[in-house]
Amino acid sequence: MAADAVKGKTKGVSTRERILEATLTLFNERSPDRVTTAEIARTVGINEGNLYYHFKTKEALLRALFEKLERDATAFMMDAGSNTITEPGIYSIFMRRWFSIVWAHRYIFRDLPGIIAIAPSLRDPTRELSMRMRLVVEGTLHQMADARLIVVPEDDAPQLLANVWIVSTYWAVYLSLQEGIDDLGPEHLDWGLNQVASLFRPYLSEVAKTELKSMLGRSFTQTEVS
Questions:
Q1: Burial classification of residue 124, based on how many CB atoms lie within 10 Å of its CB (0-12 exposed, 13-18 middle, 19 or more buried)
Q2: Taking the chain, what is the end-to-end CA distance rounded to the nearest angstrom?
Q3: The model's pTM
């Protein structure tokens, strides 16, 4: 499956990027500790020596993939943090975009303890990225409150913020550990989005509830999850 996924994407792409694309696909299909460097090289169509020329260890591969996640997340945070639009639809767009990022890099959210065991150097960067993202979630909730799209009692706000962050980021871990689902599909992405939506729903204005219902009625497209 992974080999098929990277076919047709190699024209004009460097060997290093081909390795990262194949590794990301394999890691998303299975946890990193179940994927060998030999399998990665075979998927790319190179020998292991060529793979080691670009990435000497699996930890180096994981660090490079984390940098891709960090770039995606940083671009998202910049857009969300600078947003001045108050229409409810913009928050639906942000929520779907964050879920798409989690989906694209789902191996790291699903298998984080195992990844830290392989790549201890990622412990602090992942914690820092998590803290930055939480601040963006908090800022977005304040924007929604200012736009009168959501009314959250002061006592409920810290719990809502924490729960939204936990569910939106670690829904894949729950499905793996509690439901035994490791082969995640787009339908599970929709499931995770519904879980987060259920946290917001009691606090939303009527117009925001209408937008939320509309958003949940749209399944993720291939463009959003690829």
A1: exposed
A2: 15
A3: 0.82
